[in-house]
Design brief:
- Keywords: Golgi apparatus, Membrane, Protein transport, Transmembrane, Transmembrane helix, Transport.
- InterPro entries: Golgi_SNAP_su1.
- It is found in: Golgi apparatus membrane.
- With 238 residues, the protein is mostly helical.
- The protein has a domain of 125 residues: Methane Monooxygenase Hydroxylase, Chain G, domain 1, CATH 1.20.58.
- Helices cover 90% and strands 0% of the residues.
- Helix 1 runs antiparallel to helix 2.
- The longest helix is centred in the last third of the chain and has 96 residues.
């Protein structure tokens, strides 16, 4: 029974989401056509729009269906976790996971379509406001037009200054990072040089000791050879 209810709700959601997506597409197309048809913004684009009311109604209906489907999935999860169905637990878990995936897909699709619709409506509101500003600018007096034009130029200069400042800051940050990296490399080289400098005296001392031992061994060997030679001569003449 729960699976039948879930399938029925999923079918309803599928149809609602298709209609919801078509509404968003037709909304965008209607607004584009209206902008092409009316060059002067004499009528508001969105105030009292039937498509806006349809959007709100369908969004509420889809949210209610998603809530019902979520409740059905929760009930199926409770039934799966009950103690009376141990042998079918794996199959039931697979079925439950499938319905959860479908719910997740529908939820994601709904939020995505809704976000696109709201973005289009916000853009239309912004464009409508810009058109009104342009019309008011065109219908103003020459002094006001000149003043507005100066304000626009000053605004553009400020934007260019901000962009140049951001670029300068980016270059400074990159230079700082490079300097930090070079400082680390120089510290590493300096530490290695100090290590080598500390090792050289020890190496020199070791070499001197080796040379002294060689000389001592040479002297001892020479003394032994001389004594042996003297003894041999004494023995030969005796």
């Amino acid at each position: 029974d729960l699976r039948k209810q879930a399938r029925q709700l999923e079918n309803e959601l599928d149809l609602k989401l298709v209609s919801f997506s078509k509404l968003c597409t037709s909304y965008s197309g209607a607004r584009d056509g209206r902008r092409d048809r009316y060059s002067s913004d004499t009528t508001p684009l969105l105030n009292g729009s039937s498509q806006d009311r349809m959007f709100e109604t369908m969004a509420v209906e889809i949210e209610q269906l998603l809530g019902k489907l979520t409740g059905i999935n929760d009930k199926m999860a409770e039934y799966t976790n009950s103690a009376g169905v141990p042998s079918l637990n794996a199959a039931l878990m697979h079925t439950l996971q499938r319905h959860r995936d479908i719910l997740q897909d529908y939820t994601h699709e709904f939020h995505k379509t809704k976000a696109n619709f709201l973005a289009i409506r916000e853009r239309e509101n912004l464009l409508g406001s810009v058109r009104k500003d342009i019309e008011s600018y065109k219908s103003g007096s020459g002094v006001n037009n000149r003043r507005t034009e100066l304000f626009l130029k000053e605004h553009e200069h400020l934007r260019n200054s901000d962009r140049l400042i951001e670029e300068t800051i980016s270059i400074a940050m990159a230079t700082k990072e490079n300097m930090t990296s070079q400082r680390g490399m120089l510290k590493s080289i300096q530490s290695k040089m100090n290590t080598l400098a500390n090792r050289f005296p020890a190496v020199n001392s070791l070499i001197q000791r080796i040379n002294l031992r060689k000389r001592r061994d040479s002297l001892i060997l020479g003394g032994v050879i001389g004594i042996c030679t003297i003894l041999l001569l004494l023995y030969a003449f005796h």
